[in-house]
Amino acid sequence: MNREPVTRELFNDVMVPNYAPGAMIPVRGEGSRLWDQQDREYVDFAGGIAVNSLGHAHPGLIGALQEQAEKLWHVSNVLTNEPALRLARTLCELTFAERVFFANSGGEANEAAFKLARRHGWTHHGPEKHEIISFTNSFHGRTLFTVSVGGQPKYLEGFEPAPGGIHHATYNDLGSVKALISKQKTCAIVVEPIQGEGGVLPAEPEFLQGLRDLCDENDALLVFDEVQTGAGRTGHLYAYEHYGVTPDILTSAKGLGGGFPVAAMLTTTAIAESLGVGTHGSTYGGNPLACAVAQKVIDTISQPEILKGVRARSDKLRKGMMAIGEKYNIFTEVRGEGLLLGCVLTEEWQGKAKDFVAAAQEQGLLILVAGGNVVRLAPSLIIPDQDIEEGLERFEKAVATLVE
């Protein structure tokens, strides 16, 4: 084995250049803190992009993984397994769902959801009913199908021709959807309750209810992409509960595994029947290791006191960021729900969100962007108040270096 030191420069020598990672390399974490190769400590407000729902090295997740690792890792979907069945049952008990399909990532869960929507339209109405309505600035994954449904052309550039039958309406504009929907052709409307990559932009309640009504009127399925908003992120187990609008299909990933790759597509019995034996699959989807970890995550975050705590932490973090924004005149608003927050930059700072990420890292704080104009925060759902306070102090120091 090659024991030469591993440095950031090695990335440029051995990795495909589709990422541009920061200079530091984290080597260990605990709770909402990370340490790099030089043992420098960072407060983590990024959460692996809304993935580390219970922070780093959570004892419960470690225990679940170790216990399952000593029993069974993989058997393929030629056979089922106990952790997958337990997790599916739990998700059905806690949500609107009656059937679950497991995958490994948000993109895969969305791919399954979009395929199910088309298959359902084909099965019940014929091949003409295949069109999908999505929204500009949406993000649904990186497969060719999901990046085509997503409403950010930059992610599709150079990968055309894209799959057809996909239309993009304007988020929070019901009229733009009405102009596109067709009872003969539309099989589904796909929407994020809060656009994550598109700027942490929440849907208006009337908008989501309007989408539900339009789907009902046009025999179309309503698909909620809750890859980023799900698994407790908004202070509800899933954001549809916050809005009081129930979808036909829901996708979940990111925080579902707390850092272990796992995803799920949730739906009803009647709709699930369109994916009969052999119509879709995943080699690793529903593997025992992933499902055992996800079970512990769901068992933990579904507790009322944990979800209530998310809302309390959200209030503390939001108020802290707003205060810094007002003091230095850098934010027009702090929006979002729970611990998915977007701090919108003022006109003077438009396009400079990444500058704040770099400055924050210099001060020992990890944050995110959502486009060029929004600083995004997605920390652990159980981040201690002390870490929130220290992170805010470090962020203010970072801001001071930019505005001085």
UniProtKB/TrEMBL annotation:
Reactions listed under catalytic activity: N(2)-acetyl-L-ornithine + 2-oxoglutarate = N-acetyl-L-glutamate 5-semialdehyde + L-glutamate
Presence of the UniProt keyword Transferase in the record: yes
A biological-process GO annotation: L-arginine biosynthetic process
Pfam families, per the entry: Aminotran_3 (PF00202)
Cofactors: pyridoxal 5'-phosphate
Record keywords: Amino-acid biosynthesis, Aminotransferase, Arginine biosynthesis, Cytoplasm, Pyridoxal phosphate, Transferase
Family matches, as SUPFAM superfamilies: PLP-dependent transferases
Positions that bind N(2)-acetyl-L-ornithine: R142, S282
Localization of this protein: Cytoplasm
MF terms in GO: identical protein binding; N2-acetyl-L-ornithine:2-oxoglutarate 5-aminotransferase activity; pyridoxal phosphate binding
InterPro entries documented for this protein: Ac/SucOrn_transaminase_bac, AcOrn/SuccOrn_fam, Aminotrans_3, Aminotrans_3_PPA_site, Class-III_PLP-dep_AT, PyrdxlP-dep_Trfase, PyrdxlP-dep_Trfase_major, PyrdxlP-dep_Trfase_small
Domain of life: Bacteria
PROSITE patterns, per the entry: AA_TRANSFER_CLASS_3
Annotated positions binding pyridoxal 5'-phosphate: F139, D225, E226, V227, Q228, T283
The protein's annotated pathway: Amino-acid biosynthesis; L-arginine biosynthesis; N(2)-acetyl-L-ornithine from L-glutamate: step 4/4
GO cellular component: cytoplasm
E.C. designation(s): 2.6.1.11
This protein's record includes keyword Signal: no
PTM annotation (N6-(pyridoxal phosphate)lysine): residues: K254
Primary enzyme class: transferase
Cofactor note (record): Binds 1 pyridoxal phosphate per subunit.
Family of this protein: Belongs to the class-III pyridoxal-phosphate-dependent aminotransferase family. ArgD subfamily.
Remaining remarks: May also have succinyldiaminopimelate aminotransferase activity, thus carrying out the corresponding step in lysine biosynthesis.
Subunit architecture: Homodimer.
Official protein name in the record: Acetylornithine aminotransferase
